[in-house]
Design a protein that fits this description.
By secondary structure, the chain is mainly α. It has a single domain, classed as Helix Hairpins (Orthogonal Bundle), CATH 1.10.287. The chain is built from two helices and no strands. Helix 1 runs antiparallel to helix 2. The chain is rod-shaped, with a radius of gyration of 41 Å.
Length: about 170
């Protein structure tokens, strides 16, 4: 029985480790989701600022006579803004991928935790059955000893009564 208790302790330890992994993966998932959301918000703000700045630059160009060099400068600045948007969009996509990976890891950790719980529960049931069988065996042994002691104490009286009455 001592060995079964030690094995149960090991099963409980493994369950605790699996629960810790689920907790760590949940935190990782939360951080990844927050980073993805922040990246989406940053991209939206950048796009809005870029649109406003672009409208302002083109509005300025359209409001006066300009040289070709000024038009080229505006086009270059717009291209730089577009590159910034693309970088920010890649950052958002990368954060989305990390969120997806974290979600998969969390799901895997949860499945592993459930498997460990099922194993532990089976082992607890097994230990319970073993303990019940051991208790039943002990009770049967005690009953047998009690019956043996009672029959040994009871026999001499029967024999004494049979010996006294010669009928």
């Amino acid at each position: 029985m001592r060995m079964l208790r030690q094995l149960l302790t090991i099963k409980q330890f493994r369950e605790g480790q699996a629960a810790l992994r689920v907790s760590r993966e949940r935190q990782r998932m939360s951080a990844a989701a927050r980073a993805h959301r922040d990246a989406q918000e940053e991209l939206a703000r950048l796009r809005e600022r870029s649109r406003e700045e672009e409208r302002s630059m083109y509005g300025d160009l359209c409001s006066r006579l300009v040289r070709v060099r000024e038009i080229d400068n505006v086009l270059q600045r717009v291209a730089v803004m577009r590159d910034g948007e693309q970088q920010c969009d890649r950052k958002r996509e990368s954060a989305g991928e990390r969120e997806t990976e974290a979600a998969l890891e969390l799901a895997q950790a949860r499945r592993a935790h459930q498997a460990v719980i099922r194993q532990r529960d089976k082992f607890v049931d097994l230990v319970g059955v073993y303990a019940a069988d051991a208790l039943k065996e002990l009770e049967n042994k005690e009953d047998a000893e009690s019956e043996e002691a009672a029959s040994a104490a009871w026999r001499p009286r029967e024999w004494d009564d049979a010996m006294e009455d010669p009928t």
